[in-house]
Specification:
Length: 82
């Protein structure tokens, strides 16, 4: 099962809110995740990001691949992606 760390979109049309989730690569964007490890609110100033560092490092350690945006968010939080 190829795991991927990506954003799951919530919120209304002009007020997006995202959860950072670990899911199977073959599932749809807003499908059921394996685990929720944080959230990202881009509409606040500055953008509000919270990530459970232990769980993110665990999933990266077992081979989960972050998406491009999540990779940037993790890097800003001080979590090494590769």
């Amino acid at each position: 099962m190829p795991a991927v760390i990506r954003l799951k979109r919530f919120g209304t049309l002009k007020k997006p809110f995202h959860r950072i989730v670990v899911t199977d690569k073959r599932k749809p964007r807003d499908g059921r995740p394996l685990e929720t490890i944080g959230y990202y609110d881009p509409k606040t100033e500055p953008a509000n990001v919270k990530v459970n560092k232990d769980r993110a490092e665990y999933w990266l350690g077992v081979g989960a691949v972050p998406s491009a945006i999540v990779k940037t968010l993790l890097k800003k939080q001080g979590i090494k992606t590769a």
